[in-house]
Specification:
single chain, 11 helices, Alpha-Beta Plaits, 4-stranded antiparallel beta sheet
Length: 350
């Protein structure tokens, strides 16, 4: 349950109610919302206590969240949608962001060349995989820690924050040591609860991708793991789900975007590249994602997709990416939003 107090409710009254709830055996968590006190209640709320809360003069209302036991990320826990700061780039709110970079970090010069290209075209965050979950055990698995180092160096060289996928809780120290701005939980690890708990403890921005066959409820429950573990900066990323259709790599589920706006306050991104697996379809799917309410898109860019060590068929060329950014700018304006300002490059950087 979510208990929303009247705006301006006295703090001592809020504390009295909280203590009353905790004595009843409920776990009580408080929202970060500054405009009014909001409490989330985990556990069984007895009917008599529910009536007591409903009649309390300082309480505006008591709500049941759309997804049972998904509390901290529920829409009712905030007055406005959340905004997550990724190295100075604000994801959520009015601004629309574009995340871009190679699927895999393939070498120091290669990732730097792509970083320069996407930075020039208007990207806000640089992506790149150092640890790669591959279906084929003989496929390229990434450069590991060295890949993190190369990605971060490239990001710093062009003035972009970076995001990379983490696959194992044991690698958390390496991501922190190399100051990776945002940790990505990939589709295959969405319900790796040990990983979710470990990542939550460092309270760094997290990009949580939807699992290959995960329901929205399961996806939000994974986000709740992060939030309940102490992570205050969670972003969701729809990347397509597995269906019977084989014409594309996955099926991009844009129907959930307006629904998620009702169910959660978290920022929502879309990865059309992993959804379709076909580069020429990505611009149209990106436009559709923004039109459906996404706070941004994440795409892959490579200077020569035919030589990419992973996911070449879904990588855009730099010129194609520049056109995508231009379209995103125009469409955002039409929708009453705007393209997020480009990050400022550090003095003397490329």
């Amino acid at each position: 349950m979510i208990v929303r107090f009247q705006a301006g409710a006295a703090e001592e009254v809020v504390q009295e109610v909280r203590e009353r709830l905790e004595r009843a055996g409920l776990r009580v968590m408080r929202s970060l919302e500054p405009s009014r006190p909001i409490l989330a209640l985990a556990g069984k709320l007895e009917r008599s206590l529910a009536k007591e809360l409903a009649a309390h003069e300082a309480i505006e209302r008591v709500d049941s969240p759309p997804v049972p036991d998904v509390l901290l990320v529920a829409r009712g826990m905030r007055e406005l949608h959340s905004v997550v700061d990724v190295g100075g780039v604000r994801v959520g709110g009015r601004g629309v962001v574009v995340i871009a970079g190679p699927c895999s970090v393939e070498g120091r010069e290669a990732v730097l060349d792509v970083a320069r290209a996407v930075r020039s075209a208007g990207a806000h965050i640089l992506r790149g995989g150092a640890f790669k979950p591959r279906t084929n055990p003989y496929a390229f698995q990434g450069f590991g820690v060295e890949g993190l180092r190369q990605l971060k160096d490239a990001g710093e060289a062009v003035g972009l924050p970076v995001v990379s996928e983490i696959m194992d809780a044991a690698d958390v120290p390496a991501f922190l040591e190399h100051d990776i701005d945002c940790l990505q939980i990939g589709a295959r690890n969405m319900q790796n609860f040990s990983l979710l708990k470990a990542v939550a403890r460092v309270n760094r921005p997290v990009l949580l991708k939807r699992g290959l066959a995960a329901t929205v409820e399961e996806w939000l429950s994974a986000a709740e793991y992060l939030a309940s573990g102490g992570c205050e900066q969670v972003m969701l990323c729809e990347r397509g789900i597995r269906t019977f259709e084989k014409a594309t790599r996955n099926t991009l589920d844009l129907t959930i975007l307006p629904l998620l706006r009702e169910w959660t306050h978290l920022p929502i991104l879309v990865d059309p590249a992993h959804a379709c697996g076909i580069a020429r379809l990505i611009p149209a799917l990106s436009r559709a994602s923004i039109a459906a309410g996404a706070d941004g898109v994440a795409v892959e860019v490579h200077l020569d997709p035919s030589t990419a060590r992973s996911d070449g068929p879904q990588a855009l060329l730099p010129g194609e990416f520049a056109s995508l950014v231009a379209d995103t700018r125009v469409l955002s304006g039409v929708l009453g939003r705007n393209l997020h300002p480009a990050p400022r490059a550090a003095p003397g950087r490329a």
